[in-house]
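ok here's the first one, seq then struct tokens
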Amino acid sequence: MHRTRSACFALVIAIAFACLPPASAAAPLCAAVPPPEPAAYAAHIREVNRALGIPPDYAARHDLRLQPEARDLVPVPRDVYGRKVEMVAPAAAALKRMFAAAARDGIKLETVSGFRSVAYQTHLVRLKLKRGMSIEQALKINAVPGYSEHQTGCAIDLTTPGVPAADGSFANSRAFTWLQQHGASYGFSLSFPPGNPYGYEYEPWHWRYTAGTATAANPR
């Protein structure tokens, strides 16, 4: 009798699992449009930004989307200060290919900043506020916490020898010209050109990898 009940219970469990809808495929890392974030995450970001004094409608007015925060990260070349830099695996692999191609053309690319958590992005904004900047000025330089491409692990800030990190003069470098010509072959694009709608200053150094957008099947 005991064995019969156990067998029946096992059959019920098997049927229950068989009737569950199939799990939806996870959104690809570095998707062109990030998937909707859970309500709890959105509420947390609203509270973080409220504490910073960011107007509640700021993101909507600047067409900003909530960005996922990466968890599984891999190292990429250390930054110009020798600090660890990380990205998600597909972006890191694409960056490696792009760096190698640039080197073959006599261009040396260097990293400045990769993954940054929501907490670290919040810290950057707070530092600027402590230095006397208004929140409006700070948000022209640093993305709104929760909306930064850096927190996805898909974005990278780049420079080249002889150019200060995160400096507008990068736009006049051979490295920037090379990126404009070849970055798309590896899935990288300039996120914040002059006059961008997001309220950010022109950032020629900030490039984002987007899965599935490489323009060459076998980039150099």
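and now the second one, same deal
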Amino acid sequence: MNNSEIISVKDLTKKFPMGMGEFTALNGINLEFSKGEFSGVVGPSGSGKTTLLNIIGLLDNPSDGDAIIMGSSSRDLSVRGAALLRRKHMGFIFQTYNLLTVYTVFENAEFPLLLLRMTVGERKKAVLEALEWVGLTDKIKSKPAQLSGGECQRVAIARAMVKRPEIVLADEPTANLDADNSHHILRTMEKLNHELKTTFIFATHDDKVISYLRRKITLIDGKVSRDEIVKQ
């Protein structure tokens, strides 16, 4: 792994049991991602996009091959080691917001910081900054039920970005949003990528998301069919 590489996927294969046999979701994937990329894994439903993101995010293990994340092999990491790497260095954005309904916007955004060694003052500063990034400082006392879908997804982005992670993995982050909210969300993530040099990797088949990508990796039946730079 060279100095700019933050993720390296080597001969990655993932198989799942199916009936009396097995289904190959990923088949010999080789990819590298550099710091600050704004990339997307695209392809039809069932092509392996989410499976690949889950393995990169250390939420699942490969059947064969390896994913090396910030110098650590997924095969060598213990469950605790993987959790620590996620906690310190990764943020996740999903198509379902996964907000805690009984907590306020502030508390939802603060949640990842509770696992880190930070003072109350440090947490407050980080949360307010993250909510300012996504334009929600006027909603800090609101609860998810009082927000629109677009606002909920912006809270999810703030929660993913609050600890300034090196890597953000976004699985169909605009799936439940209309066009205006989708573009607002994508412009926000593009801005954070530019300002913080965070590596963003999307799994998507949404043309709106694809139009923002600088690199597009197309998966077909668990294999990389195309890997192209689409925007400098």
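notes on #2: Residues 100 and 108 are 6 Å apart (CA to CA). The mean pLDDT is 93.
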